[in-house]
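Appendix C reproduces, verbatim, an entry submitted by the partner laboratory led by Prof. M.T., so that reviewers can inspect both the input and the predicted structure.
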Amino acid sequence: MIAWLLGWIWWTVLPIRKRLAVDSYRRCFPERDPGELRRSVGELAVQYLELALGKRAEVRNLELAAGGGLCLAGHFAAWDIMLVSLACQVPVTAFIKVPSSPLAAWLLARLRSQATDLELLTAQDSPRRAYDALRSGRLVLLVQDQRLNSGRAVPFFDRPAKTSPGFGAMAWQTGAPLLGIYQWREGRKHIVQLERLSVTVPEKRGAAITALTAESQRFYEERIRRRPWSWLWLHDRWR
């Protein structure tokens, strides 16, 4: 009920980025009702109340994270519940974008502090910290579903999308185990699923990074198609 109400407020009263979200949704899923986006925004907002109340997700295939590895991460449903739930069970290092609002940044930091072993890195941190984390057996999460203007253009829903080459570069450099993670809601329960990525990596660095970057978008597109409303459509992914 709370998620429905918050989604309705966004759709009718405070339609922040609504046109962008609706246009992108229609281009990718012309057969679906864009009104479904009320669900994604409402569930996104209510997850923070759930997290504050101690809500945790069920993590599946956790054994894949034993010994660490590189993991694709993206903005499905309860991103922060996923992050905290995972970091309560295995050591996690994740790249994040700090909100421009000091209040929002403080609130997120407080909520994420519930995690047992969570290291957060930003774009300003030295890449060496991520490599050190990987060598020490941590699971390193790289968000690959947002636009990076200086990134590589690879297919995403049949359109070129500028994507960070960070995942591909680290994978080629280290030869670390490659995983993907995504999360969704089932009623009042949150599910997080880890999966092993099986990718044939070219020997040459440039070709390998492009192939791995393209694979990251294929992985997310496939999962978005399963639950289109579960992804955060507020990003300007194809600009």
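The radius of gyration is 17 Å. Additional entries are available on request from the coordinating office.
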